[in-house]
Amino acid sequence: MTLIREASPADGSRLVAFFRETALRASTEFVLDRGPDFDALLRIRGHWRTFVALEGERVRGSVTALWHEGLDGDKVLVVGEIVDLRVAPEARGGPAAARLLGRAREALEETGADWVLCLIGDRNREARRLVSGGAGIPPLAALGRYASVHYPAWRIPRWAAPGGISVRRADAGDARVLAELARETSTGRRFAPTTLFPWPDPSGTHRGWIAEAPTGQPIGGLVVWDPMAVRRIRVRRYSSADQVLRGLMALAAMVGAATALPKVGEPLRLWASRWLGARSSAREVTSLLARTAIRAAAEEGQHVLQLNLEERDPLFGLLPALPRSCYWSTLYGRPLREPGTGVTDAAICHTDVALA
User: pLDDT digit of tens for each residue in the chain (356 aa)?
Assistant: First the structure.
């Protein structure tokens, strides 16, 4: 008999162990190590409630309902997400996933969330079946495709952008400049959080760069985040394409130009983008910012620079043509409440689903 209940702080170590055992697939297979504090990542993202499926004392599944403020045009909404759905291999095909999703749906209904969203890897067929109504759940609409572009970090030669554009490292005194740039260049990016990133960052986990015109006017920027303190990616199996990149990085490491990609089981160190934007000269700004960050990542011993952009974002097509891997996901969602009625639509969603 499987018991579904809300997780308590005492469940943290069991959830950490369960995540270390339950693999995700994006061609390359990996697990997310959330130890020692399972909730640390969730505290950064908003408010949450986590639920677990138990058989005796053994965890058979988990899911988290997460909510935070987000932008839809000029309106501030409460955006709900179902994240971190995991089901143990021996429990797949049973009722555990649907029961967990039902509890998460109820939790989001209680928050009064306006929208429910999920981001599912395009290779995750089982997760797509669930959001299309295959588990008796109201279907969610596909809202857009997103690319997670992974550039291996290497000491790329410094590049002079046309037109005299330059890039400098952002410091603690650039909070206003970064906030204005991010707000202006994020207009139209639906469901963007109201606060894109903390700056200055007391945790020291963010890095930022500002692109400037020859006049010194800020015209673009990039802020990345190092998640190692709260989440580590451990590769279980490299895809054939990533094996090729791994070989190239091993050769570069031999001459001191890069850090070799990790062995299976070791953590993959990466910087993930929180924001990338350009006011003008978008092609030159995008390329110069990416190249600068790739080099800086290598100099700090990172393996990968990860840039996350929507397919329709004009900057996506302007990223530099350098060695990289690209993982595609689709954003699904729908309003949780019918406009003007206050009636809850029992829609649910999930991200990082380990069911494929």
Answer: 789 999 999 999 999 999 999 998 777 899 999 999 999 999 999 999 999 999 988 999 999 999 999 988 888 999 999 899 999 988 887 788 888 888 888 898 899 899 988 888 888 887 787 777 766 567 889 999 999 999 999 999 988 888 899 999 999 999 999 999 999 998 778 888 888 899 999 899 999 999 999 999 999 999 999 999 999 999 999 988 889 889 989 999 999 999 999 999 999 999 999 999 999 999 999 999 999 999 999 999 999 999 999 999 999 999 999 989 899 999 998 888 654 444 433 333 334 433 32
Residue 257 included in any domain: yes
Hey, what are 44's tokens? 């950064």
Query: pTM of the entire structure?
Result: 0.90
Structural domain boundaries enclosing 166:
149-330
Identify which of 341, 339, 335, 337 has the alpha carbon closest to the alpha carbon of residue 110. 337
Name the token pair of 281. 């000269």
Tokens encoding 140: 């969610």
Same domain for 126 and 62, yes or no, is yes
Helix (H) or strand (E) holding 282: helix 282-299
Helix (H) or strand (E) holding 19: helix 12-21
Q: Is the residue at 250 inside a domain?
A: yes
Q: Are residues 33 and 127 in the same domain?
A: yes
Q: How far apart are CA 131 and CA 332, in angstroms?
A: 8
Query: What count of Cα atoms within 13 Å lies in the side-chain half-sphere of residue 114?
Result: 13
Q: Which helix (H) or strand (E) holds 96?
A: helix 96-111
